[in-house]
Design brief:
alpha/beta, Aspartate Aminotransferase, domain 2, Aspartate Aminotransferase, domain 1, four-stranded antiparallel β-sheet, 12 helices, binds pyridoxal-5'-phosphate
Length: 378
């Protein structure tokens, strides 16, 4: 073998990130405070048009803060998309609230509005109005926000928009993370841009974001001594991470273009192959194509066994992964309520994510192509 590993999605630095970090060192802003934090927050708001932003240590922390700010507490019901990464739902449990999982629809793979409404009706009959809806834009594809916002308004339940995978994605030109009461972003190492680890909470309401900063700073009261009247967290982003983020945001649009080009590359590669399908962009939807996913139909083409395909690529030192395992199938969540059918389950069974980094080289794409062709030809 001897060939270097091709990753699913690896960090891709531009030219400004290291300069910014050096500037942070030179000015000794090596702390969870400093000018790059303010800059990064402002630039994120400018980019997504969500008016206010607090950057924090992770996307998971941002969701946790959103739940706290919505006063989600013990035994409250929170409705969450099942087809997602566990960072979406764990903060519900941090608050000792009850996660209830909702299936996806097949057009965007995100929260199914009908299943969402069924779940809300179920809990209203029990006189237990859900406290929040966590909708996810998985793999960068926006969810059906028009329908979900209509439901949110009709029942007066706030939306937390998990845009961890969807920075750069839009519906009718409006950015993901700007639709909900809260939007959250992640800058983990595998995301479309990274700060090595980090996240952001966004909202149009300034006092709410000010309160998020307060909670993220151990809820330290405004006093000369250390005084605390509520429980907070140490969730602030460091100025070093923000320095990286400021540089990364400058190249975000290029990263989106490169990821979309990867998607086009795979569509082209599989175009003659029976039984392979891709997630299409509905009218007005623009996906950053964070990861390219394929869905294999073995009834149409017996060769398309996702496990065998993945192991074949692995032998050529190429990483691929099954799609997210739905939360209602996770051992830790198996006793939680679930509303919907089998859309997410089927996607988990039949789908795979392919190498999608914005830094994939021509040679790497050639290697991927020949590995896939050799699998299909055997
Ligand atoms: C990455 C991710 C998160 C969590 O973000 P972290 O920064 O890793 O905590 C949440 N939701 C989704 C859908 C993600 O992909």
């Amino acid at each position: 073998m001897g060939q270097s590993k091709i990753w699913l999605s690896s960090p891709h630095m531009g030219t400004e990130e290291l300069k910014n970090v050096q500037e942070a060192f030179a000015t000794n802003w090596v702390a969870p405070a400093g000018p790059f934090i303010n800059q990064f927050e402002k630039n994120l708001s400018d980019y997504t048009k969500a008016k206010h932003t607090a950057v924090v240590q992770s996307g998971t922390a941002a969701i946790h803060l959103a739940l706290r700010l919505l006063d989600v507490a013990k035994d409250d019901v929170v409705l969450c998309q099942s087809f997602t990464f566990i960072g979406s739902s764990n903060p519900i449990v941090y608050q000792q609230a009850q996660p209830v999982f909702i299936d996806s629809e097949s057009e965007t793979w995100n929260m199914c509005p009908e299943a969402l409404e069924m779940a809300i009706e179920h809990f209203l009959k029990l006189d237990k109005k859900p406290k929040a809806i966590i909708v996810v834009h998985l793999y960068g594809m926006p969810a059906k926000m028009k329908e979900i916002i209509a439901i949110s308004k009709r029942y007066d339940i706030p939306i937390i928009e998990d845009a961890a995978e969807a920075l750069g994605s839009t519906i009718d030109g409006y950015s993901c993370s700007s639709f909900g009461t809260f939007g959250i972003l992640s800058f983990n190492g595998n995301k479309i841009i990274t700060t090595s680890g980090g996240g952001a909470l966004q909202s149009n309401d300034e006092p709410t974001i000010a309160k998020a900063r307060f909670l993220a700073t151990q809820a330290k009261d405004n006093a000369p001594h250390y005084q605390h009247s509520t429980i907070g967290y140490n969730y602030r982003m460091s100025n070093i991470a923000a320095a990286i983020g400021v540089g990364q945001l400058e190249v975000l649009d290029q990263r989106v273009q490169a990821r979309r080009a990867n998607h086009a590359f795979y569509e082209d590669l599989f175009k003659e192959v029976e039984g392979v399908s891709f997630l299409k962009e509905p009218n007005g939807f623009f996906s950053n194509r964070w990861l390219t996913c394929v869905v294999f139909d073995q009834d149409k083409n017996h060769k398309l066994n996702p496990d065998k395909f993945r192991l074949h690529l692995e032998q050529d030192n190429i990483e691929s992964r099954p799609l997210w395992k739905p939360m209602h199938l996770q051992p830790i969540y198996k006793n939680e309520l679930y509303f919907g059918g089998q859309v997410a389950e089927q996607l988990f069974e039949k789908g795979l994510c392919l190498p999608s980094g914005s830094n994939l080289t021509k040679q790497e794409k050639d290697r991927i192509q020949s590995s896939i062709f050799s699998f299909l030809d055997q």
